[in-house]
Amino acid sequence: MDLHVKILNERVVARAKARGLDVLVYAPHFTRLPEIRERAERFSDEDLLVVPGREVFTGSWRNRRHVLAVGLSEPVPDFITLDGALSAFEEQGAAALVPHPEFLTVSLDADAVAEHRDRLHAVETHNFKAWPRQNRRARAVAADVDLPGFGSSYAHLLGSVGEVWTVFERRIESEADLVAALREGAPRRVLRRDGLRHRARAAVEFAHLGYENTWKKIERIFLSGTEPTHPDHIAYDGRFDAVSVY
Fold it and tell me: In this structure, are strands 122-127 and 95-98 parallel, antiparallel, or unpaired?
């Protein structure tokens, strides 16, 4: 399974199936859970299970730390404290994962992972977007706190889907199966493709960060108004006011 993709459409599904994947976790940025869940259900079939996930943007733009939740039953907004996000995950029985640890300025660092170790269920040890030295550091972070690893394409682009994947030793046939496997630390292996094409695709995926952190950020901050995942949004009915950072 590819445990973290940002895109989902017919071509993504076709590519996932061609790569032999059984499960995708779809977790786009700044998208509310009901929309993610509806889209995941629409693209799931007997050959491919698409599980909804939320990569929650905790903290402010100056102090960003992403955490990935799988198994949420109720929406959790962005721009809340890390403690507030983890508490919401716990209340809902979701699996709390650490994507791309110590990657640029958007990740939990080793100290934060260690501090919250008992509230986390896995650390991403291979992210397709990251450079080799960053993935080596991620593996060290996971080893230091004795948490299981996972791998993903973190695909923002079609060509990245299935370049990195995680194989569990147990059958995963539903969202509940996946949440249980993650929360219980079920045995798994992290695998990836190799070769020049793999490395070229990784470079293109990394370069996409430039777009994400320039025009897309400007669009979000200045042109889009209130994010649909902002805690002040009417959809959250003030439930996260106490842990909102804005």
Answer: parallel
